[in-house]
Amino acid sequence: MRIEFDPEAVGRTPFYKLLTSVVVPRPIAWVSTVSAAGTCNLAPHSFFTVACVAPPIVQFTSVGRKDSLRNVEETGEFVVNFAPEQLFEQINETATDFPPEVGEFEAVGIAREPSLRVKPPRVAASSVALECELHSTVRLGDSTVVFGRVVHAAVDEHVMDGGHPEVTRLRPLARLGKDEWATLGEVLERPRIRYADWDGGAGGAGLSGS
């Protein structure tokens, strides 16, 4: 037996909590930006994914008018820093609602390094940095989706295996519902099945009926 939820009847905040509890796990974009006045901002955003392959575009969503969004609109640049397990405390601390004139790098004590193609700095201890130029934004109700074209990627060699980033070395963090976070856990590997090789899968006996 299911419990039914009507978003209009439930209301914004309770339904938001429901969505973030069932759309899990969510990867984290640890976004660094610079304001027009020169303040460096750093904040985690868990509404984050790849939007396009060619050209390479990533997206994150700002729920409300947050510093990351304002800075990207002002300067047209941002960096998505990888959010690893070992930086959990610092990532959580940068979610604090500091006023716009306070830079999270300094407030939290996070070392930075210069980016190659954009002005916002990278997080020095983060193993991956995706340097982005603003492609476009889309306003949806109380939120704004930010699309950034990746113009440069920097990956620490210690997470590489045969020329490819290896997930057990990356050790990504993910967001769940409430105040919950998740670490990598068990990794499952299966190749994608071609239709020519399809035999009905784990739950079927094939298409021939035999």
UniProtKB/TrEMBL annotation:
The Flavin reductase like domain extends over 21-175
Which Pfam families would you find in this protein's record?
A: Flavin_Reduct
Family indicated by similarity = Belongs to the flavoredoxin family.
According to the UniProt entry, its GO molecular function terms are: oxidoreductase activity
Database matches in Gene3D superfamilies: Electron Transport, Fmn-binding Protein, Chain A (2.30.110.10)
Cofactor requirement: FMN
Q: Which organism is it from?
A: Streptomyces lonegramiae
Keywords (alphabetical) are: Flavoprotein, FMN, Oxidoreductase
The protein, known as: Flavin reductase family protein
EC number(s) per entry: 1.5.1.-
Q: Kind of enzyme, top EC level? A: oxidoreductase
